[in-house]
Amino acid sequence: MFFLSFDDELTNSDLCCVLFILSTEIAEKRSYGVKADCYSFGVLLWQLLAMANPRPVYTPYLVNEEEAAASAAFNKILSTNRRGPRYEFPLCACWPMFVQSLLRRIFQRNPRLRPNMAEIERKLESSLEKLWKEIQQDEETMFGKTTAPCTPETQTDSRTIPIQGSLNTLPYMFGLDRQRTFEMELEHEF
Amino acid sequence: MCAATTCCDVCATLPFNVRALTSSVGGAVGLDDQHANVLQDDPMALHKSSSGDSQDAVERQHQSSFTSKRLERICKEIYEKCGGSVREIAHLSCREVKIGKRVGKGGTASVYHVTGFALTPFPRNELHKNDHQVELRQALKDSSMQPQGRYVLKRLSKNFMSSHHEDDPPKEVNKFARAALINMLLEAQFLRVFDHPNIVKLTAMGECDSENFFLIMTYLPESMEERIISWRKQVKRNTKKLLQREKTPVLAKLSHQFFKPDYYKKQQYTAHLELRKLMYERLYVAQDIAAAVGYLHEQRILYRDLKTSNIGFDSEGTVKLFDFGISRFLPTPEVEEGEHFEDSFDMSKVGTKMFMAPGMFCFTERDIFYA
């Protein structure tokens, strides 16, 4: 049996975990096409965003009894409903919305419904441009033009920050509470 | 059936003698002297006579012919589809490369640092006397002198290849060695064809000995895993900064409020900005990878092994895909050109043939372990 996304144990890293994520059609020994690559790209994107490793989910060929028992128990929990997604990657609400929707589309069970690789690229490209503009605008409003050469005329009092909001509410403004809950969820799950 | 012309062409694209290489590995691949009638000849004749079990021999013969067919078909496909754009690359002999430490090791192949090139002034190989080759080899040597021009050498592991020499040849290993060799040949061919900023460049190749060969590629100093870990550290540091106020001592807080009223606020904003920039950076990397994989799909190639350990960053910081060991061509669509190409692209029929080649897919130790 072959694999799509498989990782050995890393020696000197925090991400020390065996990764065994197969796209659904390969795990079920159905025939597959380019959309299997899309799925593994989705896993990769998830890893980039969450900065964590997904835990092993599915072992089509089992080596010893312990593993078999463990995976059976695990699969029983995860896929009681056979039609539903086999394993849901938790998505953090603090990620940009377009990424969340993209990931939801990629992790679909039916490979035909998943977006094409070119489509993914286009989507990422267009929304990344927007994101970069937003970041630059925010930088300007917060700190004045840092990129412009500093002359006595352009130099403003950067100590005062135009954006309103008390310090206590800031984390909530930034969606940090969501990130925290997401991290807690991850620790709980993995 | 192997048409004589295509077989010659295939051989011509490879700068070394495939026949010698492949015939030494049990004669399995079967590109023989006349470049013709490969499949009708019995490549396993010698083995057959030695092993008494006829059924076994037939089985093996079947497997070998299957793999040779596959290799032939794929090589032909590569040549047909990208025949014009196959790059010529430098060809080196084994002694001309100085090998340093081992960087990484996979199931079948291992990767070493290249510390330098020592080109022989009077090459024995005829290929090396070719004018273009002389230029290429010299250019490679020059670039290796510069600080950014660092290379790695990839070759099949020695013990993996040589195990079939022993007096009781384990059949499996022999099969796997053959499959690994074929995979590496295909990888070399793929890499010579690809031209994309996010795919690693093959700069040279050559033979180690009669049954092993090596590829020389650009060195990728940072792996994706390391990068993810460093990102995670940065993100954690910044989130800490954002939540800093809760933990600062009261006196410091008061004094800061007196002297620099916006100190913490400003720090929090910078941290927030930093976090968003990190998010942007990560998504940008993802976009690059998507572009590379999309490029492969355009050429109707499945990468099949997309994971963090197959992605690295070069010295300039651009993302690169490497390890095309198990990427394959999709079978050609049977629809006419006028119909929807996009739709036929992901037809579920597409991959069925891939399941039928057991020898081709079981080639790493892991696979042996799990299969």
Describe, in plain words, how this protein is organized in 3D.
- Chain A has 190 residues and is mainly alpha-helical.
- Chain A is built from seven helices and two strands.
- Chain A has helices at residues 24-27, 34-50, 65-78, 97-106, 117-143, 170-173, 176-189, and strands spanning 5-7, 19-21.
- Chain A has a two-stranded antiparallel sheet.
- Chain A starts with a strand and ends with a helix.
- In chain B, the strands form three sheets. Chain B has a six-stranded mixed beta sheet, sandwiched between helices.
- Chain B is elongated.
- The two termini of chain B are 31 Å apart.
- Chain B is of the alpha+beta class and 371 residues long.
- Chain B has helices at 4-13, 18-24, 45-50, 54-82, 131-145, 158-162, 171-193, 224-242, 250-259, 263-298, 341-345, 358-361, 365-370; strands at residues 90-93, 97-105, 109-117, 151-156, 202-209, 212-218, 222-223, 301-302, 311-313, 319-321, 328-329.
Instruction: Give the amount of beta strand of chain B, in percent.
Output: 5-15%
Strand order across the largest sheet of chain A: 1-2
Q: What class would the helix/strand composition of chain A place it in?
A: mainly alpha
What would you call the shape of chain A?
flat
Oligomer: heterodimer
Helix content range of the residues of chain B, please?
40-55%
Low-confidence stretches of chain A: 1-20, 56-63, 80-85, 146-170
Present the secondary structure layout:
The complex is a heterodimer of chains A (190) and B (371).
Chain A (H helix, E strand, L loop, with lengths): L4 E3 L11 E3 L2 H4 L6 H17 L14 H14 L18 H10 L10 H27 L26 H4 L2 H14 L1
Antiparallel strand pairs in A: 1-2
Chain B lengths: L3 H10 L4 H7 L20 H6 L3 H29 L7 E4 L3 E9 L3 E9 L13 H15 L5 E6 L1 H5 L8 H23 L8 E8 L2 E7 L3 E2 H19 L7 H10 L3 H36 L2 E2 L8 E3 L5 E3 L6 E2 L11 H5 L12 H4 L3 H6 L1
Parallel strand pairs in B: 1-5
Antiparallel strand pairs in B: 2-3, 3-4, 4-6, 5-6, 7-9, 8-11, 9-10
Helix pairs in contact in B: 1-4, 4-7, 8-10
